[in-house]
Amino acid sequence: MLKVYWWTVSFLRPYLLELILLIFCGLIITSSQLAIPKFIQYFIDQVQLEQETQTFIWLLIVIVILIVLIITLSAIRNITQRSLQEKTSRDMQFSIYSHLRKLGFAYFEKHPVGESLALMNTEVASLQNLYRNLLPWMINNFIFSIISITLMISISWKLSLILIPSLLLYYIFGPYLERKASKYGKIMADDRVRFNQKVYESIASINDIRANAAESWDLAGVQSRYQQFNKMMIKTYWFAFWRGTNRRMSYYIGGIAIIMVGSHLTLTGAMSTGAFVAFLLYYFQTMHILTSVVTSITEQRVLMEQAEKLYKFIKIPPEVQEDADTVTSNKVKGNIVFQNVSFHYPDGPDVLTNFSMSINAGQKVALVGASGNGKSTILKLVGRFYDPTQGSVFLDSQPIDKLSFKALRENLGIVFQETYLFGASVRENILFGRPDASEDEVVDAAKAAFAHDFILELPDGYDTLLGERGVKLSGGQKQRISIARMFIKNPPVILLDEATASLDTISEKEVQVALQRLMQGRTTITVAHRLSTIQDYDNIILIEDGRVLESGNYRELMEQKGAFYHLSIGQKLEGA
Fold first, then answer.
1. Domain that holds residue 104
2. Are 39 and 59 in contact, with CB atoms under 8 Å apart?
3. pTM for the full model?
4. What Å distances lie between residue 122 and 111, 114, 153, CA to CA?
5. d(CA 138, CA 538)
6. Does a structural domain hold residue 237?
7. Of 177, 348, 419, 451, which is least surrounded by CB within 10 A?
C-alpha cells in the first residue's frame, strides 16, 4: 500500500515550490493563531492585575497585526492550495485518461465502456479528494499539533499528561469504529461503481429495452443496484457518526479532568489563572485536531484502497506498444504484405495460422468466409490494433511495428460496420477526417460521398447538430458521412469492415456507389458479406480456419467451382 501512496503523492513533485510555500504559510498562520492564547494568558496574569493600560494598547495592536497577518497569509495559502490541488488533480486525471487511450482495442474489447466511465467518474474523483482536502488539511494540522503540544508542555507538563489517557480513551472504540467505517466505505465505493455502470448500460440500451417492453425489468435492476449502494451508504454514515461521537466524548472527558486538575493547581498557586485558560484553549483545539488526524488517516487508507485500483490500472501494459525508434513521418504507396502471420487473442485459440497474402498498391482485395475465421482480425492487424503472435505485416516493405502509430494510421482510412458520429454538426463530423480542411474541401468531400444533397435537406444544412451518435440520420446517411471523412482525409489505404452489412438494400446501393468512388486509385481491403458487391475486385481471398483456402478474381473462383463457387450459389439461393 505504501507504493500506492507514493504514486498518488508523486503528482505533487512538479509543484514542489508551491507545496513549500503552502507549508510555510501554514507554519506562520498556525504560529500566529497559537500565539493568541498566550496573549490571553499574559493579559490575565499581567495586564489585568497590574492595570497596565499602555501595555494593553500594545497588546491589542500586536493582536490586530497578527490577525491581519493571518488573513493575508490565509489568502495566499488558499490561492496556493487551490492552484496546487487543481493542478495535481488535473495531472492525475489526465494520466489515467492518457493510459486509457494507450490501451486501445485490446482493453476495450475485454472491458465494457461503463466500467471505464465508472473508473474515471468515481475512483478518480474520490482520489482527487486527497489533493483537494485531506493532504492540505493533514499538512496544516500536523504543523498545528506539533506547535500546540509544545506550547502545552511549556505551560504545564503535568496537565499535558492528561492528553495521553484522553487519546487512549478515544482508542478504546476508535479503531473499531474506524475499521467499520472504512470497510463499509470501501463496499459503498464498489457499489457506486456497479450502480454507475448499470445506469450507463440502461441508458445505452434504451432502444432495445423499449423494443422488448423490458422497462420494468431494467428499472428493477437499477433499483436493486441503488438499494445495495444506499444500504452501504447508510451503514458507512452510521459508523462515521459514532466515530465522531466517540472522538468528541474522549476529549470532553479529558477536558473535565483538565478543569478539575487545573482548578486545583490554580487554587494552590501552582499555576496562574491565565496559564490555565491558555492551556484549556490549547487542549480543546489540539484534541480536536489530533483525533481528526486519526480520522483523516483512516479516510486516506480507504482512499488508498480505491487508489490501488487506479494504480493497478495504470500499470497494465498496452498489448501493442510503440517502439522508441519508429518512423514518425512516412507517406506510403499502399503495398501490403502478410508474411506467415499467426494470431490468437489472449487466452483464445488461433484465429490466423501461417496466413500470407500480398497486395499491390491500388489493388482491391476482398476477404470472405464464415464468421470467426479471422477476416476482421486481418484489418485490426493492418491498423496495428493488435500485433501478430508470429510472422510480420509490411507496408511498403516496412514492418508496420517500425512505423509510429501516427505515421501508420494517418495513411489508413477505416470504415466500420457501425459508424460513430459525434453529437456535433455535420461539418464537424466530416472535419474529423482532417480538422484543418477548408469549407470547400468539406463540401467536395460530401459531394464525392453522395452526401451533399441530403445534407442540404437537413434543417440547418452543414450546421445541423446530429445528436448523440448521429441519431438524426439513417444508417446509409451515417455511412456516407463516414465516407466523406475518408475523402477529406485522402489516405492511400482503405479498410472496409462490412461497411454495408447493417444497411437495407436501397441504402446499401447508395453507399456502394460512394465506396466505389472512394476506392479509386487506393489500396482497398474489404471484409465482404455479400459476394455480389465484390465481383470487380482484383483479388478475392476465401479464408477458412485462419488460412487461405482459395484466392483469385471473381471469374477465376467461379470457374474453379470450389468453396467460393458454392458459397456464391448459396447466397443467390438465399436471395431468391
1. 17-314
2. yes
3. 0.66
4. 16, 11, 44
5. 70
6. yes
7. 348
